[in-house]
Write a structure and sequence with these properties.
mainly alpha; globular; 14 helices; 346 residues
Length: 346
């Protein structure tokens, strides 16, 4: 099947109409062998080459700027350079991987510059004395990064930008809670992070449900939001099961695996493998704890990796039949509303 980029170029050059391109995408989406979670990530080796060039250019530029104007100015210059590079490689060339790298560098550099500025401003008791507290610069810098993300998305429409701005908003919420309640206990912070994860998941589902055939940019936005939601949901749950990263006994390891299996069930339901990625590390930790208790200390690491690999391969091989069987047991009103509904999943 012709790539989305080629279809866009064909429409721009009036080789085919926009309606014909839409119908071709719909035909590809109904193909039983098509990947239901295709991501516009790398369109060719040229993307990798440009991404490498971006890194080779921005890293030394930041180091030189740090020597000349200091860290705040250096981060600001890197952010400005990332924007200028995006004007060519994202807006004109529409290369996927470099666009992702550039938006990540832009938002991270803007956040770093703002956090350093507000920390210095707080130390001088101007203009907000409370900003000198630990969460203060993070909170204000997060709002700056959100504004930068909104501006970047308005200009370039890179799908990952929505997830970046959402992650920064979650960071602002946690920092604001810590600033308002300095003695906030760890369980309360975990609960807040979990609530943020659920909210991000709901937002991702709104994008997913609005594009059930996954033909538009909304499906890419949903992918990155799901990838963000998973650790925000799983990490607090595992933190509650094993506070402080302590070793797991059999019961806690089983509880961790149960969380992972529930996450897998949701992933199958909504046809999003991305949800499982964040849970693999925790599942591996739980399996390692269980294997260690069997006395196989010399083989615990390879057996753990082998078990995870076998699970991932089996799930990949039987994803479609498993999902079809799963959806058939759901109420019809629900099975017809999930992404890639039952009609197109069998």
């Amino acid at each position: 099947m012709v790539s989305d980029r080629a279809l866009d170029l064909a429409v721009a050059q009036q080789i085919i109409t926009a309606e014909q391109a839409k119908r071709l995408r719909a035909l590809d989406a109904t193909d039983s062998e098509a990947d239901p979670e295709r991501l516009r990530f790398v369109s060719g080796f040229g993307d990798l080459f440009v991404a490498l060039g971006v890194g080779l250019f921005l890293i030394p530029a930041g180091l030189i700027a740090n020597r000349l104007v200091g860290p705040i100015g250096a981060w600001s210059i890197v952010a400005a350079l990332a924007w200028l590079l995006a004007e060519f490689f994202t807006r004109r060339r529409r290369v996927a991987l470099p666009s992702i790298v550039l938006v990540a560098v832009f938002m991270a550099s803007g956040f770093a510059a703002a956090s350093l500025f507000f920390r210095v401003a707080g130390d001088r008791s101007w203009p907000w004395p409370e900003v000198g507290q630990s969460p203060g610069p993070i909170l204000l810098a997060a709002f700056v990064a959100i504004v930068l993300g909104i501006a970047h998305y308005w200009r370039f429409r890179v799908p990952i930008t929505v997830a970046g701005a959402t992650a920064t908003l979650c960071l602002a919420i946690v920092a604001g809670a810590r600033l308002a309640f300095p003695g906030l206990p760890a369980p309360a912070i975990r609960a807040l992070i979990f609530a943020c994860g659920v909210a991000v998941f709901v937002l991702a589902m709104r994008f997913d449900i609005s594009d059930p055939a996954r033909q538009t940019r909304r499906t890419d936005i949903a992918f990155w939001l799901h990838l963000l939601a998973a650790p925000l949901i799983v990490h607090p749950l595992i933190g509650a099961i094993a506070p402080g990263g302590e070793s797991l006994d059999a019961a806690r390891a089983a509880a961790t695996l149960l969380v992972f299996l529930c996450l897998g069930a949701v992933a199958v339901l909504i046809d999003r493998r991305a949800l499982l990625v964040s849970g693999l590390a925790y599942a591996g930790f739980a399996l390692l704890s269980l294997i260690r208790q069997t006395g196989l200390t010399d083989l615990q690491s390879p057996i753990t990796v082998l078990a995870l690999g076998a699970f991932v391969l089996a799930l990949s091989a039987f994803w479609r039949p498993l999902r079809g069987a799963f959806l058939r047991r759901l109420p019809p009103w629900l099975a017809e509303r999930v992404p890639h509904p039952l009609v197109t999943s069998t």
